[in-house]
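pasting input
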Amino acid sequence: KQEVTQIPAALSVPEGENLVLNCSFTDSAIYNLQWFRQDPGKGLTSLLLIQSSQREQTSGRLNASLDKSSGRSTLYIAASQPGDSATYLCAVKAAGNKLTFGGGTRVLVKP
Amino acid sequence: NAGVTQTPKFQVLKTGQSMTLQCAQDMNHNSMYWYRQDPGMGLRLIYYSASEGTTDKGEVPNGYNVSRLNKREFSLRLESAAPSQTSVYFCASSPMKAGHTEAFFGQGTRLTVV
């Protein structure tokens, strides 16, 4: 059974600092891994998707890495801004097209 | 671009009542999913349908039933609602392919059972 864990559950940083969010999964036989952002009371916004054959994916200030063999992904957000405050969720897609989520990391960027 | 559409957006039920949450996608995706999200938690998979005609249980299926009506629509039914089913429900869809196949989500249904 695939289990996805995100540590820490919450993170508070001053504006300008780089954010490092972690996601680990127990079964390395994945199709892909997707990072989402969720604002309070809202739906999910897809940030980045990394295929199982890729090592990293970049979009603007966001960079996500994937180490499939060790079951880990890291989302880096450079030069954080108060607008980056949100909950960040990772999800892995595996056999049967099943999509499993981690518990999320709640981020607060203080001005 | 409608994407994934969920109805209703909000619902209040009394304990024991039944209701069906509707989900439709217009992206010709094979796979569809139902999740619930409780305060401060991630998304937990209730049921999913890898392709039209198939459905499988996720982590928390008890108290729910699903119907994959056709390729576009995947409904979630609560036969006898309980306060423990108070949650936000999300529907999602994705192509049935490995690799670069992004999942897309609806805006959620906020359900309160009193």
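fyi Chain B touches chain A through 29 residues (CB under 8 Å).
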